[in-house]
Amino acid sequence: MHFELVDIQPREITFTFEPRKQSSCTIQLFNKTDKHVAFKVKTTNPKKYCVRPNTGIISSKSLCEFKITMQAQREPPPDMVCKDKFLVQSKVVPEETSDKDITSETFSKDDGEYVQENKLRVILVVPLNSPELSPINGAQSHPPNFESSPPKCLEDLSGGEETQIPQQKPAEEEFKQENQEEPVKAKHVEIETAKDVEKVEFVDEINTMKSKLNALELKLSEAEATISRLTQETRGSAQEKESLQRELVRLRSRKGVRKVQVGFPLLYVVMVALISLALGYMFHRQ
After folding, report:
1. Most exposed among 16, 17, 164, 188, judged by the fewest C-beta atoms under 10 Å?
2. Do 2 and 116 touch, CB atoms closer than 8 A?
3. CA-CA distance, 49 to 24, in Å (whole number)?
4. pTM of the predicted model, to two decimals?
């Protein structure tokens, strides 16, 4: 079990949805360790969100914030339920590491170092002045601050690249431009980032299975050690029993010899007595 590197607040990303208006949410990261920690933010839908900054270094026992901006949307999703997810990765790095040194390879698990991964879901709520006020996804939340102007860059969290937006465009024109984009390319980016999050869930399941397997192997080793000990004790008991049986046979044989040795002098005495009586009888007749 690994120690938690950073504390994330809030644990859910809440946006107040209004058609053709942006909405923002600020997430705080607190470094709980005595070392420098690098972080990176990814999402399953990089075309829809802008994260500033999406990477960074947090000093020991320090607080860092990043801001997530949801781009203006023409219509809300069905039932106001958003299936987008965010992934926050954090890892201990050397003190001399800078923001420019952070890449996707920084959070690779191939080197065996621990990478903390937290999944955050997106919750949409309607404005307070809306007649259809109701919290979405079963959570009541206060609306975050709005931003009237679009961000200067739209970050692709799957690769860390930035697409510069030279000037602000009307919402209607933005939607036209989005509709003219190649759907295959957008879908490819979304699939890649979605696979990244699914990969984390799969890795978590594998780690859980490995932990259970290690526990079973430990119990199996203990059982084998117990069986080996009992087997040795059984062999020792059998050898001790055989030794006792041999000793018993030896004692019985010695007892038989002693009986023979004790009986021989008695017979001799009886014979001598009979001979004496016979001789006495013969002398008496004469």
Report:
1. 164
2. yes
3. 9
4. 0.48
Question: Which residues, including other chains, have CB under 8 Å from residue 51's CB and lie 6 or more apart?
Answer: 41, 43, 66, 67, 68, 69, 155, 157
CA dihedral 40, 43, 46, 52 (to 10 degrees): -40
* Type and span of the H or E element at 264: helix 183-285
Cα separation, 210 vs 66, whole angstroms: 34
- Taking the alpha carbons at both ends of the chain, their separation in whole angstroms is 118
pLDDT tens for 184-236 read: 444 444 445 556 666 666 777 787 788 888 888 888 888 888 898 888 888 88
pLDDT(280) > 90: no
Beta bridge partners of 133: none
> Which of the 8 DSSP states describes residue 111?
T
* CB-based contact 86:69 (threshold 8 Å): no
Q: Which amino acid is at 201?
A: E
Q: Which residue type does 71 have? A: Q
Cα 94 to chain centroid, rounded: 24
